[in-house]
Amino acid sequence: MSLTAHIPSHRKPRRSAPKSALRAGVAGGVLSTIAVAGAAGPAQAEPVTQTIEMPTLTSGLSTAVAASAEATQQVALDLETQAQEDAAATSAAKAATKAKAEAVRKAEAKAKAEAAAKAKAEAALRASRSEARTTLSTSSTSSTSGSTAVASYSSSATGSAASVVAFVQAQVGDAYVSGGTGPNSWDCSGLVQAAFRTVGVDLPRVSQAQSTAGTQVSLSNLQPGDILYWGGAGSAYHVGVYVGGGQFVGAQNPSTGVVLRPLSYDPPSGAVRVL
Q1: What is the pTM of this model?
Q2: What's the number of domains the chain is made of?
Q3: CATH number of the CATH domain containing 222
Q4: SS (H, E, C) the chain
Q5: pLDDT of the residue at 30
Q6: Structural domain harbouring 255
Q7: Is residue 1 one of the residues assigned to a domain?
Q8: Euclidean distance between CA atoms 175 and 182, whole angstroms
Q9: What are the pLDDT digits (tens) for 236-261?
Q10: Is 231 inside a domain boundary?
Q11: How confident is the model at residue 141 (pLDDT cuts 50, 70, 90)?
Q12: Residue 73 belongs to some domain of the structure
C-alpha cells in the first residue's frame, strides 16, 4: 500500500459534461445570431412604401351621437311642454275655483239683499196697513154719514157677506195696479172678484159684467156685501163693496190704492146683491 494513498488530492473537481455542453451551446447560439444580424444589417433594409388604410369608424359614431343628442333634446322639450301644460291646468283650476267661490259669494249676497228688501217691504206694508186702519177707523167714527165704527158695523154682516166684508177690509192699504188680482196689489174688479171667491162665488173679471152679476138694489136699501158700481149697469167703469155704516171699500186709483171711504166721498150709480 502506497504511503500517499490517503492524502487528499488538491485538484479541482471536473465539471460535469452536460453542464459544459449546455453552456457551450448557448454561447454559440448567441454568437451565431449576432453574426447573422451583422451580416444582413444595412444591406437588407428597405423603406416602407405601402400605406394601409384603416376603416373609418367616426362617421357612424357621429350619426349615433347626433341622434342621441336629438332624442335627448326632444325629451327635454317634451318635459318642458308637459310642465307648461301642467302649470296652465293648475292655474286654470285655481282661477275656476276662485271664480266659483266669487259667484257663490255674490249669489249669497244677492239672496241676503233680496231677503232684507222683502222683509223691509213687508214691514213697510204692515206699518202702512196699520196706519191706514187707524186713520180710517178715526174717520169712520167722526164721519157725518154715521158715527158707527168699522168694528161695530162690520159685525152687522153675517154669513158669507161677513166673509166678503172682512176680506176687503183686510186689503185696505194695498196698492192699486191696473189688472192686479192680489195678493198685495189690485184693481177694482180684481179685488171684488177675489172677495167673493172666498165664499165660493165666481164673479166675472171686469166691472161691466160685475155690475149685472146679481139683483139690482136701491142705494137706500144697501146691505153689507152688496156690490157698488159707478156708471151704467152693464157699462160700469168702477166697482166696490159696501161694508155697512155708509162705508165702502174699493181699489180706487194708483194714488190712493185700496181705501175705506164714506158713500159721500164718491156716490155710486147703483148696486147689485149677489149673496
Answers
A1: 0.47
A2: 1
A3: 3.90.1720.10
A4: CCCCCCCCCCCCCCCCHHHHHHHHHHHHHHHHHHHHHHHCHHHHCCCCCCCCCCCCCHHHHHHHHHHHHHHHHHHHHHHHHHHHHHHHHHHHHHHHHHHHHHHHHHHHHHHHHHHHHHHHHHHHHHHHHHHHHHHHHHHHHHCCCCCCCHHHHHCCCCHHHHHHHHHHHHCCCCEECCCCECCCEECHHHHHHHHHHCCCCCCCCCHHHHCCCCEEECHHHCCCCCEEEECCCCCCCEEEEEEECCEEEEEEECCCEEEEEEHHHCCCCEEEECC
A5: 45
A6: 84-275
A7: no
A8: 9
A9: 999 999 999 999 999 999 999 999 99
A10: yes
A11: very low
A12: no
> Could you give the strand order of the β-sheet that contains 227-230, starting from the edge strand earlier in sequence?
215-217, 270-273, 227-230, 238-244, 247-253, 257-262
Within-domain flag for 90: yes
- pLDDT tens digits for range 181-240: 999 999 999 999 999 999 999 999 999 999 999 999 999 999 999 999 999 999 999 999
Tens of pLDDT, residue by residue over 66-93, are 778 888 888 888 888 888 888 888 888 8
> Within 13 Å and on the Cβ side, how many CA atoms surround 134?
6
Which of 205, 202, 203, 196 has its CA nearest to residue 163? 196
Ramachandran category for residue 200: left, alpha or beta (phi over 0 → left; psi -120 to 50 → alpha): left
C-alpha 201: how far from its chain's center? 47
Judge contact between 275 and 199, C-beta under 8 A: yes
